[in-house]
Amino acid sequence: MKKIIWIYLIFVSQLFFAQQNNQLWKGYFSYNEIVDVESATDKVFAATQNAVFSKALLSSDLTIYNSINGLKPESITTIHHSELTNKTFVGNTNGLLLIINSDGSITTKVDIINEVPVPPNKKKINDFYEHNGRLYISTDYGISVVDVATSEFIITYFIGTSGEETQVLQTTVLGNEIYAVTRDFGIRKGNLTNPNLYDFSQWQTFDGGYWSGIVTFNNELIGMNTNARTYRYNGTVFQEILNHIQAGLKIKTNGTELIVTTSNHVYVLNQTFTQLANITSIPNFNAVFTAATVVGTKLYIGTEKDGLFSTDITNPTVFENMSPNGPVRNYIFRVKKALNYLWAVYGDYTRQYNPYPLEEYGISKYSKDDGWELIPYNDIFQAKSICDLVINPNNQTQIYATSYFSGLLKIQGGTIELFNQANTGPNGLESLVLTPPNPTYIDVRVNSPAFDKDGNLWMTNAFVERAIKVLNANGQWQSYSLDGIAPTVATGRYGPMAIDKNKTKWIPSINDGLIAFNENYNNKFIVLNSTTGNLPDNDVRCVAVDNRNQLWIGTYSGLRVVSVDRFITETELTANSIIIQEGDLAQELFYQQTILDIAVDGANRKWVSIADGGVFLVSANGQQTNYQFTKNNSPLPSNNINDIEIDGVSGEVFFATDKGMVSFLGTSTKPSDDLANVYVYPNPVRPEFLGTVKISGLTDKANVKITDIEGNLVHETTTSGGTIEWDTTAFGKYKVASGVYMIFVASEDGMDSTVKKVMIIR
Fold first, then answer.
1. Fewer CB in a 10 Å sphere around the end CB: N or C, the chain?
2. What's the CA gap between 478 and 461, in Å, rounded?
């Protein structure tokens, strides 16, 4: 698209987002992957890569900051809470500085990103240290200084021995001297009373060794060395106070205790350097530690995958998980909505369908009543890299999950089965064969699960000739060969398939275009590729059948559309691009864009995920763009959306990204069969509400008229799907006044009707 079009779309989306004030968004984040922990007088703070949460010690009140309420990090590296100003500072890998103010508002500082003259990959924030109203920010280029009260940048120090940038890992102050642990030049120091400290020559090398952290504790310098030991400086030399065996990750102090964290140890020392605690494990968890701190008598430990834990220093035997409820991790690869549960899996693969390193995260499910629950890895026969899910449409309690290493899982209640090459017979699942063969290596790569209308479960099996598999409703397995159909069948890999009303299977492949197959027409195959099918690329990433039997095809380099009914009568298929008109310009929709996923809502609109481009909502025919949501103009935590899932009942649209999952509460509901259950929300509409009124439970093509109490028409529309929105204006011109408004609904044929009311309070 032309630049002017993108600017327009972004402007419209930003305007919409501002108007909605995030009321239409929900967050489904994980709080298990802790990167830093910070103490305060009466609470503890913890950070994941994309969120910060705090817990009050006395009341246990939990406060969460994420993209839904305005905290939009790149990737969090460290945090600091200022008792002086009640602000929390959040550092990122790209130099972005976020500040959670005392009133809960978020300030975004891009000074490091925009103004510090070093390459972007050298702007990572490593640590914060507060002294005399100033915040010293250790970065990959040097030290930047911020006024804690005003949040304004003051100065930057480049402290390499020749004035070059150097990685500063941590700073501290003792007396008037500031000490900085660097990656390349040992510990450098300077005098804070020196007005010329910006001059690198005013800095000295205090110690030329290899250090990873430094704090001031009990009026002494404490240094953590790369030799897995921690030392105190006695005024003359460094003396060892702790051998922590492993490389130190974090060294912290709350003033009365010293805390050293390694991947498998958390040490707590008092002011005489007596060891108060040495935590090596957390019961029932194979925890890897990342950071720790002490508040009062409580020790708080952050872990790599299991969340934040607390225990008592004097008796560290009982551990409490402090993390908010959420999925296991933020990188969700696929999500599916059942009647009562939302299911999520984490076993991703690369563009080349490489699942390594293999994931061992289990399967998560969410309900409004119970929150997030986990089916652990050990309970699913240690099946690795679970990459997709499908829900049996005839039995919503029956879930199938595909593993891109271990086969197929069936989950129903408390019963779980694993299908693989060993128990599915000669026509079932197969392991790939190595060259040269290794009979002890078993690798069953299953993907693309989809049910047809007869209750048969279809899937693909990568790297084998008989790549199309089906578990029939009668429990029998069957295979279909792609030999002679797909030129690269020996290394064939396949994306999520779609099955249309005619039971034709549309299977994306990485090298061979789009494979269409229907066993009911004498095992008929048609292949669409860049040579014969007008595809822009032979790497097809996703497909979706819409409500008018059009197949939308997302490839690595653009979009195509074809009618599914043509498969029945034709022997070759050619897909079409969608041409949109913008002024005098005609252009192809999503030209040369990598399309990650396509989902069709109840109004036949399409949600389209673009690699590093966020998500678009386009009209049924693709001619209009309703929204474009990106990380910049919405609560999306990332512009890479792995999967889009729509709850056809509520209209909630789920976006599973590589940095967390959020949802948008839109109007993408399926039409109802009658008007018996029409409802209006919110009702009443109060002055503080900034969103739109939703009228749901509608039939398709119903006529909706809204009038004031005197019968004056203020809005009229025809439905497409099961829900409409009203912006509470009179035909878009001005906001209607306070009062009761009548909503008259009639079906397309006029045989069914209903009347509802809505109260608006200005």
1. C
2. 12
